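Quick one from the shared queue. A colleague (R.T.) flagged Tyrosine phenol-lyase as missing a structural entry in our internal table.

Convert sequence to structure tokens.
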Amino acid sequence: MTDAIPERPRRRRSWAEPYKIKVVEPLKMTTRAEREQAIAEAGYNTFLLRSEDVYIDLLTDSGTSAMSDRQWAGMMVGDEAYAGSKNFYSLEEAIQKYYGYRYILPTHQGRGAENILSKILIKPGDYIPGNMYFTTTRLHQELAGGTFVDVIIDEAHDPRSQHPFKGNVDLQKLTDLIKRVGAERIPYISVAGTVNMAGGQPISMANLRAVYELAKSHDIRIILDATRAVENAYFIQQREADYHQQSIAIILKEFCSYTDGCTMSGKKDALVNIGGWLALNDPDIYEEARNMIVIYEGLHTYGGMAGRDMEAMAIGIEESVQDDHIRARIGQVEYLGQKLLDWNIPIVVPIGGHAIYLDAKAFLPHIPQDQFPAQLLAAELYREAGIRAMERGIVSAGRNKDTGDHYYPELELVRLTIPRRVYTQAHMDLTAEAVDEVYYNRHRLRGLKMVYEPKYLRFFQARFELL
């Protein structure tokens, strides 16, 4: 009788990306002295660096994704007719199928849709509640005469809170605002999925459904910022019991069904380098928006996009809702985040969808917020390893339009944004090691002073000097 074979202990299996690399782009390697000169010349603003001087570019996931072979093939069948391009109809069909909206207007990118929507719906003196501000969204609302009101749950402002849906709307805050200003002064509720400024945090299906019911009882619209709604659908699948067995595509369509329209930057979830759309269900608002599109974007069947880009976006939408894709996409973000957590580096938790957010207040507690600690930390990470990240704190928050004072957000963050299908696990390892090195030497760092501030969206072009 032979000895029984002992049972093999279970081990965690590694995951791998559901694609293989066909084309590579060489990266420039720089010395520390070269990086110190480059960041100083850029005024310690990572937006002002030349991309060729960047080794690992984690500035944004907007327009930085790698397109698939199918998307590149789609580019070759671009119909560049000025009116009625066949690629528009491919895009329209994809949006209607996977997002569920009735009327589609392409725009050059997401803020084009925000501009049109704000001009149509917002009147001076209106209030727009939302689950935390986003920079361009709030600015368009303000330029139209409106005032943004934050109605997100309190946990969203706490980087250490483990709430699984920190993007949720606080229904009591929303109800109080409706009672205070009146439903007629609220043109729509602005809901983002996921919430960028909170750390890429999702809103639950249950919460959005409740917001929808409350809004309908007061005859108020809901407009979705659908930029990363596919990533939000993934978190619903993973964290809400009723959706564990549902596909991402099914969850996404139900999610959008609790809204009346959306603005979209196709440069994120939809896996393209340029483009966006405005989607609506109301025929009257659509008719007005279609007329405005001609003024600000282009004809309603191209809206500032080339036919080839519309075709690539239509294909990208189909690819974006595949479960294997989104699991690997967010899995790479989680890999980097867990590595930093294992090394006790302060980040926003739970780990979000498109980026890891370093908690600059905890990272650099000796630097006061008006000395721009997150801006400094982003610059220092570039100086250390050629990694470009983005500030998401007091600089991004801007100034109060009435008083001119800085906004002082609770969250002072540095965003390490992971482009889709671009970097390898080795790049994530190197990024984690660079963050760890900066963290080890954090006590040597000193703050910044702002020496140039543009009128709008200052984080793009502001310049700083070391104190």
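The two ends are 79 Å apart (CA to CA).
Residues 323-342 form the longest helix (20 residues).
Added to the table.
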